[in-house]
Amino acid sequence: MPYVAVKGGEQAIQNAEALLQSQRRGNPAIPELTLDQIEQQLTLAVERVMCEGNLYDRGLAALAIKQSWGDLVEAIFLIRAYRTTLPRFYYSQPLDTSQMQIQRRISSIFKDVPGGQNLGPTFDYIHRLLDFQLMAESEVSSAPEAEASNEPVPWVIDTLDQEGLIQAEINDGSPTSPPFDLTRQPLTFPAGRDARLQNLARADEGFLLSLAYSTQRGYGRNHPFAGEIRMGEVEVVICPEELGFEIAIADITMTEVQMVNQFQGSKELPAQFTRGYGLTFGYNERKAMSMALVDRAMRSEELGERVDSPAQNIEFVLSHSDNVEAQGFVQHLKLPHYIDFQAELNLVRKMRQNQQPEKNHDVPHAETQREKEKVRKAK
Predict the structure, then answer these.
(1) CB of 239 within 8 A of CB of 245?
(2) pLDDT tens for residues 96-152?
(3) Cβ-contact 112, 86 below 8 angstroms
(4) Which candidate in 57, 62, 298, 372 could, as Cys together with 39 as Cys, close a disulfide (CB 3.0–4.6 Å)?
């Protein structure tokens, strides 16, 4: 796509950048936001940037939010760009979420579950009313505390699995083949489930939320139940070749969602429940739920279901879910397109000129008809 470079605008660009920095800072009389404040008090924004930016670093995510003037998509762009400059020393072992140190864990399909329900920090049960005490910056009462439990919490869906009532997970590749790496391999179609889940994990939350909503309203035939939603700390383990054994290097916050969906069965499969899966960095519950719903929708073809909705179309979903690519393609329209438009303008003018003789040709014909009508009336 041809663009025209703007010449002679260097000073204007510098002025625009200076104006941006000034307005981003705001009133100098008001204390400047610190990165610690952003990290600690805008946690959900920080964790969304880490998730969709594909880099688990709370400090850098806070910096990106501050630099981007609070624009989270721009912050994600900054983090994604910075991430490409980093060397990769090791691949971690698969995360074992069954050993998660639970902060929040609920299930909507069973009242009593092994390990119990843990509401954790959530907006789900509070009134959506503005809290004017926050304007007064009053002290917040301390949260109740309980002794941490190191006992592993089994997955709720295992209860259904033991009875054979839920579809077993399908491994697209051989047990020894490495999983698809979207950061180093181009996305191709057809895409396996490992590639699809990676794409969804870094996809725009709003896009996934809209698609997930569409599946619930009939555009995908999803009838989901929240089998389990859990959030907590998971240990990251690597196995350096020079050591020859595994070592833990960090604990990171993760959100995991397993959705349970109805399935009437097919010629090959009996009636059973099917799964949708979502896993994200940080406390990103809405994103993980949306991811799980869309994951299930994209499994329609392998389950023998008719594919007739956007959320079921794998190529459509994966090709349009990345907010860095999407915002770049939309915002490039602000760049100069003088040559493109002049070509379109000349084409429209030529088309109008070609159509003009046809209109002129109709005029004598109409006048002849009127003359004949006058003669007829005179007789």
Answers:
(1) yes
(2) 998 899 999 999 998 888 888 889 899 988 888 888 888 887 667 777 777 767 777
(3) no
(4) 62
3-state secondary structure 279-290: EEECCCHHHHHH
Identify whether the C-beta of residue 72 lies closer than 8 Å to the C-beta of residue 65. yes
CA torsion 265-212-155-272 (nearest 10°) is -10
Peptide bond into 190 cis (omega under 30): yes
Distance CA 274, CA 43 (A): 33
C-alpha 39/C-alpha 86 separation (Å) is: 22
Helix axes 58-67, 43-53, angle to 10 degrees: 100
pLDDT tens for each residue of 141-200: 777 777 767 777 888 888 888 888 888 776 554 556 788 888 888 888 889 999 999 999
Euclidean distance between CA atoms 49 and 63, whole angstroms: 11
Give CA–CA dist 318/188, Å, rounded. 10
Rounded to an integer, what distance in angstroms lies between the CA atom of residue 121 and that of residue 125?
10
Helices in 151-190 by DSSP H: which ranges? 157-162
What is the pLDDT, as a whole number, of residue 70?
92
Q: Nearest to residue 256, comparing CAs of 156, 326, 183?
A: 156
pTM above threshold 0.90: no
The structure tokens listed for 218 are 């009939």
Kindly provide the residue ranges of all beta strands, DSSP E only, lying in the chain, ordered along the sequence: 101-106, 224-238, 247-263, 272-281
Distance of alpha carbon 368 from alpha carbon 82, whole angstroms:
75
Residue 201: phi, psi to the nearest 5?
-65, -30
Q: Where are the beta strands (DSSP E) in 57-158?
A: 101-106
d(CA 114, CA 230): 13
Structure tokens at 226: 């929240």
